[in-house]
Each structure stands twice: as C-alpha cells, then as structure tokens.
Design goal:
globular, 5-stranded mixed sheet, mainly beta
Amino acid sequence: MRFLDRLLRRDGYYAQIESIEVDPPTALLGEPCTITVVTSQTGPRSTVTGVLYGPGGEALRLRFARVGESVFQQEWRAETTIDAGAGRWRAGVRVEDDTAETAFDVTDRAETVETRIRDFTVQPEPAEPGEPLSFGGRLERSAGRDEWTGLPDGQLILLSFRAEDEFAWRVITETKTGEGGFFAATATAVESGLWRAEFPGTAAFLAFRGPEVASTAPHSEGDVKLTHGRNPAKVRRGKTVRHGGTVHYWSGTGWRKLGSGRAVTLQVNGANQAGDTTDRNGGYTIKERAQASGGRRVIFRKQDSFNAGRSDPERKVTVTN
C-alpha cells in the first residue's frame, strides 16, 4: 500500500470542484446562459458532468468543454437555454468523485428591472502583500430608456477575487450600499489578480456582476502555494479520508514544484493532525482517521528559503456515525 500511495501522488489526484457560476447570475427565460465550473488541476481524462434541476421537476443535462488550464486549476463551460420554469433552479456538477451544486434564479426579463455597477475602483495600485485595499463603486437601476438611478440604500454587494494563476472566483468580503447606491469596502492584498463587485439581486431587480479590475501584489521568491484534494467528502466515523496534493513555490519567474523531504501538516478544524513529507515532485498523501465533521487544510511551515503557505479554501468533510 505504501508503494501505491507513492505512485498515486500527483497534482490533482483527488480532483475537486473549486467553484460553479451561472452567467448571467439571474438567468432569463428563453435566453442563453453559461455555467462555468472550475476544478483543481486534473488529468487529461477527467471531465465535468452536470444537470440543471428546475422547480417543477425539469432536468437539463449539461455538456462541458474545457476552456482554460493553469498550474493549479482548469476551467469548464456549458451553454444552455431555459425556455420554461421560472423560479429557483439548481446546478449540480461532478468531476471524478467530487460533487457540488449551486442555486440560481430564473425569471422573465419583462418582470424585473436591470441593474449595473459603475465606477468600481480598487486602490492602491500596485499594492504590497498585506497592505489594505479600498473598494468603491455605485449600484444603479434602469429608470427607462437610457436613464439610470441609484438603488435604495442597504443593498448587498459581494466583493470577489480571482488570483492571476487561477480561474475560481472567491467572495472575500461584503458590504451594503449607502445613499444613492454608493458603496465602499476594505480587504487585504494577498497576491495579484482580479477583483469584481456583484449585486445578488432581489425579487424586483436583476442580479449583476460588475467589471473586473486588476490589482497587483507581486509574489516574493520562495512564496509557497499548495493544492489539496480530499476523498471521500462524506465518511463514517473512524474511516479513512485521504488527502493529496502538491506544494509549489514561486521561483521569481513562475511556479515550480517543490522537491522531496519537505514537511506538510493536515489541520482538522484548526488543530494539527497527521502529516507527511513531499516526494521529488512536491507531492504528498496524508491519511486521516476521521472523527469529526468540519474543515480540512494542509499547512506548510517556513523551511529554509521557502515561506509558509497553506491550502485554500478549506475542504469540508462530513463525518457520520
């Protein structure tokens, strides 16, 4: 078994779904919509499958094509049109043994009001990692013809980030609009990438994802990023969950796989558990005897010229009796 574990150590062996996104965020009856799925880096034989489930029992099978690939992730897209069934829909997707779903609304264009986000800014540019970032913008609604006006205050705004070497968007913080639809928020610069603001929508107003704004926070040589997959996601108490991935470091010009003999530690709900050392390709495999539900993360502590790093996001594991 030790030989098999070592043989199976490769980046993305436990393929994970990193995100699911529907565009436009409120789908419109009779109009095309796109479902984008981001997975952890997987082999060429991996593929994404999915189904849209409607409020009346509708089921639309999705055909995904891989449209992007990086060191850490792959991006997949499927296009479809929902002709009937206004209400709450679900998109369920699978890659290898991992599954996930997201909910979204489908409505008739004539029954809602369009919205938009204008003048979205991220400051300062560039920024140093760890430096505060400030965001600002305005949420507006259509007032007919070519006229727009600010929405009433108290509307939710989500601020999302996508690292330059990844495809998945992650919500980092949120805020609410003030008078005239203006909003502001702060977050911490971690690395270079793209930011955007999103209005989730209401019964009366269509959801809207704003334009992407670049933010530069350069890596330092020796920075570390970890991939992390877990399998299975649901297990009986005392049974084994396997964790696998690869440790990468920033060489100054790109990401490289770390060599052998570097320690990594699995954290379960923030507490240290089992560990492993990397193989010659930076790969690791950790076996966990699962006892409690919650988040799992793999930690790399500073070693020689390599900085500390951790896997993000946490992987959830559900433990049953």
